Amino acid sequence: MKNKQINVAIVGLGFGAEFIPIYQRHPDANMYAICQRDHTKLHQVGDALSIEKRYTDYDELLRDPEIDAVHINTPIQNHAEQSIKALRAGKHVACTVPMATTVEECRQIVEAVNQTGLTYMMMETVIYSREFLFVKELYENGELGKLQFLRASHQQEMAGWPGYWEGLPPMHYATHCVGPVLALAKADAEYVSCFGSGRIDENLISKYGSPFAIESCHIKFRDSDLCAEVTRSLFNTARQYRESFDVYGSKKSFEWTLIEHEPSVIHTGEVPKKVTIPDFAHLLPQEIQGFTTGGVYDADDNQHLSFLQGSGHGGSHPHLVHEFIFALVNQRQPFPNARQSANITCVGILAHESAMNGGEKINLPEFTLS
């Protein structure tokens, strides 16, 4: 697809609307179409952001031969089916997290990528946040020394979100804490052991059969002496919103701030120092650099819950768009690709299974891209 602008269609216009102006300004993308079942929402967004091509039917969108790629931002239970349909229809896929809700669905997406030769990327925000890019730079420059241990957490109160979130097993939406620990080490998860703790409201438990307020998982990395611990909560746990990771190295360690908007800490030996995380807009094409600090959901009266609670997702949105588009233009794999996305997603799926079985050790399936 070299020397060609990529025609992109965005599916789902809640959180998905945030990406429209980024694609509109990316030099290698053409923001071609949008899709939303609700006519009012479809035309509201289309009119506001000047998108001419509009669909209420996803299958009809996939029949449009002008569309090169779809960016899916729909409810999580739709991700796998819609990703597979798009790949089968000849479209490249970017999909918000998680990749799927079952191990089998993850397998089917990887299989569809292998059969079609098309590109799939899970749009995991934390691994393109300024915090992650900062720590990644420290590690790659040798400042952290040898990685010794990683820890991450994603704690969030989901009361007030759409009904399909109610009672969701915490680890079924774990990519924001699993992603950074695997990505920094450039590793795959080999096996997991997870414990559930506490109990959510009885009316929430019946929806998914998951009783736990918190799930905490240990991850053993494949072909490595490293492991990580990740913690996830969604309901009935008092904690300010936090997507975080800590990295312990032989020379320096990084610990995420305990309170949002306060400085994080770098320990050099036993000496701590507060650090202000820089922005990494310079890594992007000039046309989209401004989106690391601003976007559609800036105004006080126009805030999407994921953006408001997530503090803008660490400026990750333009980095995600650029990684996806740049991979297509240069005919290379994005990060995370389908195999890596499946490994990250299956950590959470199998961690919950482990928790439901008292911490049973469960091996991750191996996925291969041809």
TrEMBL record:
It comes from the Bacteria. InterPro entries: Gfo/Idh/MocA-like_OxRdtase_N, Gfo/Idh/MocA_Oxidoreductase, NAD(P)-bd_dom_sf. Coiled coil: none annotated. Gene3D superfamilies: Dihydrodipicolinate Reductase, domain 2, NAD(P)-binding Rossmann-like Domain. Residues 6-122 form the Gfo/Idh/MocA-like oxidoreductase N-terminal domain. This is Gfo/Idh/MocA family oxidoreductase. It comes from Mucilaginibacter defluvii.
